[in-house]
Amino acid sequence: MSNTLKKTLKTILPILLGVFLVWYAYDSTSADDRKQIVHYIKQADLFWVILSMTIGLLSHISRAIRWNLLLKPLGYSPKISSNVLIILLSYFANILILRSGEILRATALSTYENVPFEKGFGTIVTERIIDLIMLFLIIIAALFLQTDTILGFLQEKGFNYNLLLIAGVLGVLATVIFITFVKKSSSKIAIKIRSFINGLLDGLLSIFKMKNKWLFVFHTLFIWACYIGMLWVIKYTVLETINLTLSQILVVFVPGAFAMTATNGGLGIYPIAVSKALSIFGISTVSGDAYGWIMWISQTLLVVVFGAISFLILPLLKRTK
């Protein structure tokens, strides 16, 4: 398979998957249910929708400030306004072409702020590691706070606890074997993996060496609090979800976060993932779908509008480049 064909498939397949899931969501609901979902969306209180979008925008600004904390030890201090525009542009790019935003972000930083591509990209990788750790902590918190509910749901769906336990043990053993292989093997693959992991660890540990590490921690916590806050305030737009607790919102947040990486901007799959998670707490499919679509539409609109504005403004502000 040629590289051109591979790139084309990587671009088209996520979009096709998203379109299929939109069709699936449409086809799996009755005409009455669809009318009710559309009614919920149309009647959503704009105050909560705009508040959710505002919280989302604050998270992007905080991410721009945090990004500078990573760039400063490398000798670079871009304008925060430039960082914000580049970040919004990268999210906009991810909606068009899946996972293209990180490359575009490092390229734009290099073009407009004279930060070498490899250094800018290295800070982005470090960010992604931190984000992965935060998501892992949220998963643990959700499992701890809603253990009985989640286990009860799995049991209701026919999941076998013994099989899950065996799978967990096998997963741990496989991880131990893999780590041992990478540490001791002298093969080219093992050396590359070892080098990659060491690079990631260096990037992660560099956080503790920076002067403003506690400010970095604050912005990290603030960014993820905003992500959860965006989801929290949207609950007030649907009558059946108003009484959801914070721990329940965390459970809903996790599949939604994974869904955002499966297709372009979570197209099609995000509302389905959120709706299925809400069903654990007895929320009807209609209300769950409405909640998921309101959340997805509001945040996608935020990224599209401000991303498009960034696309136009950046070249004008940096026209000497």
Structure, described:
There is one protein chain. The chain has 321 residues and is an all-alpha fold. The protein is 79% helix and 0% strand. It has helices at 3-27, 31-43, 46-71, 80-96, 101-113, 117-145, 147-156, 161-184, 188-205, 213-234, 246-259, 269-279, 285-317. The longest helix has 33 residues, at 285-317. The chain starts with a helix and ends with a helix.
Over the alpha carbons, how many angstroms does the gyration radius reach? 21 Å
- Write the H/E string, N to C: HHHHHHHHHHHHH
Kindly estimate the percentage of residues that lie in beta strands according to DSSP: under 5%
Number of strands: 0
Largest sheet: none
Question: First CA to last CA: what distance?
Answer: 38 Å
Structural class: mainly alpha
Spans with pLDDT under 50 lasting ≥5 residues? none
Number of helices: 13
Instruction: Indicate the mean pLDDT.
Output: 82
- What form results from the Cα inertia axes? globular
In which range does the helix fraction lie?
over 70%
